[in-house]
């Protein structure tokens, strides 16, 4: 991973603007899931560290824009750039990271570049869908999963597919692995938003629902509630939750086992990905570690 960190540092230095360097150093690198995936799949390629650095810049840019859209003050437990330096600066930093990533991407084989570039269009579309869907309570599971794929899973899918192309591996099975890894990863994140505490999350618990996001546990719950309780759940959508409201939602989720049902879907997607990569113990291990983050 040090080779990836070195490439990221080089790319940021090449931008040649101290303000960008300062702001980028404020960002937490996170799990570097996409970079680790690329290094494992394309370990024999000398181009893999640069491709991983490009994808991490794209991911960082998307998070900067996401924090502005969500008006989030924290990212991974640290103050967000929009909180410390304003939304305009956060958007422009994101634009610079996107632009630098694409500048480097054009040096790759056209199929590799196409896969990564297409995923950026898809994740931007997913972000827009997420904003639109927050306007009202969404109880459509398929619609939610479509948005989740575009916003979160598509870049992980592209990282796996592009790195497979880089070293001549089966790109279709690797893309399936990346897609399902991304979806199950986000479903587990959605569950943790409800079950984990603020200290663990680095942001307020149950913040998704306050922001208007109806994740799977809420969608499943809506379908199982009586009419009176449905009205109460919908009335709390995109509103600040007091302790009584939060406890009531958690009590109903526990009663109807909607957390468990959401986890079952994450496990099903994870198992499909493991079957696609059953001969690669390292990729299987990534999935097993991810699924253990559960509630």
State the helix count: 16
CATH superfamily of the largest domain: Farnesyl Diphosphate Synthase
Structural class: mainly alpha
- How far apart are the first and last residues' alpha carbons, in Å? 28 Å
Chain-averaged pLDDT: 93
Stretches with pLDDT under 50, minimum 5 residues: none
Overall number of strands: 2
What would the principal axes of the Cα set say about the shape?
globular
Please tell me the CATH architecture of the largest domain by its name: Orthogonal Bundle
Helix content: over 70%
Count up the domains. 2
Fraction of residues in β-strands: under 5%
Strand order of the largest sheet: 1-2
CATH fold topology of the largest domain: Farnesyl Diphosphate Synthase
Q: Give, in order, the helices and strands.
A: HHHHEEHHHHHHHHHHHH
Per CATH, the class of the largest domain reads: Mainly Alpha
CA radius of gyration: 19 Å
Task: Please describe the biggest sheet, giving its number of strands, its sense, and whether it closes into a barrel.
Answer: 2 strands, antiparallel
